[in-house]
Amino acid sequence: MKLDIFNHSNLRERLRELNEQSKKKIIVLDDDPTGVQTVQDIEVLTEWDVDLLREAFRQPQTVFYILTNTRSYVAEETERINREIARNVVQVAKEEKADFEFISRSDSTLRGHYPLETDVLADEVLIHTGRMYDGHIIIPAFFEGGRVTINNIHYVKDGEKQIPANETEFAKDPAFGFTHAHLGQWVEEKSEGRYRESDCVYISLEQLQKGPDILEGILTEITGNKPVIVNATCYEDLDRLSLALKMAEEKGKRFLFRTAASFVKSYGGISQQPFLSKESMLSPGTESHGGLIVVGSHVQKTTRQLQALLDSKWVLPVELDVEKILNPLERGLEVERLIDQVNEQIKEGRDTVLYSSRKLITAARKEDNLSISQKVSTALTDIVQALQIAPKFIIAKGGITSSDVATKGLSIRKAKILGQAAAGIPVWLTGEEAKFPNVPYIVFPGNVGTDQTLKEIVQTLSV
Asked: pTM to 2 decimals?
């Protein structure tokens, strides 16, 4: 590859061209539905059987997503899902005589099953193809959400402040908590010492700014599936890295990726587009119906956003009592009450916010905390399943909630990503097989946006 590509007036366009020339599929395994928050005009699959994967391999787009939802599962189920996907992908790739790369997309605030997912993918690929990875590249930067990595420390923006990730509420996550924001130390912590801080390769901002020659030299020296920590503060950093990766790959280097959403946009050569208009986010023929907002996430940002929406008086509130949902004797009556209320309000054209009560109920074991989250999400999903008419828009707030609403509540098997409603907030278009076909479905991550963003999106759709 010639070095003049570094001076190309549009690095992202050059990356797109390189991807098209290689005909290699970039397959993003997304551990919750929010990872499509930087892309558009590509497909997301919520299942991964061989027939559906074969269809995806035959599409012209380089990139496609598979929603694994593994952040809502315990380690054993997460391993099973990743192994099954990897086996099916390898089978289809061999049939189609195509190559592929895996991006394991996870949370920009460092929650999730690392290093389990990258370890399992590397193992399955080795078993079925003989391919060994030289490194797994860790890039949690997510610029749309204000998450950057500087001097190997990962920061989360809160207002005007950049806070080390270990000092945020996300570090106290009951299932995926951590104590280090220095990514080398985080790797050692999460791998329980199997990967040590000193084992990591670090790519600095200064090295990124020197261009692809320097970066390619670093990448070609990496072997043994070492963790590679990438600092990044903007898309230009990632675009330079992506070009260097293409150069190293041409020489036979192979990498796995554990990243947040921004890297996919760069490596996939996906262009920037404006936020979607109101007309793009409303389902034709449903103008007289109410919209539905489903809120399950319990992070503080979500609670503040929910309160701002409730204070606006534009929506009718419907609160799901979590304590009743967790009580087998009360669950049925509580769900039936909410089904009746939500259906009536949407039929009357009233925008409705269905939300779980804000008192956080936790358990001592992280597996039990995941179980609580799943029970709450299942109740919310049961209500969506029981909708009798299509809302004029659907918003789901939170990772587990939005995944369950998509796959179980709306029966989505395959969707097209239209773009974003606001920074980091993707909009799906449901497939023909869905409960409500061709309806825009807005996936609102729990940890994205200002306190006013949820209210602003609802206002745009309602006025």
From this structure: 0.89
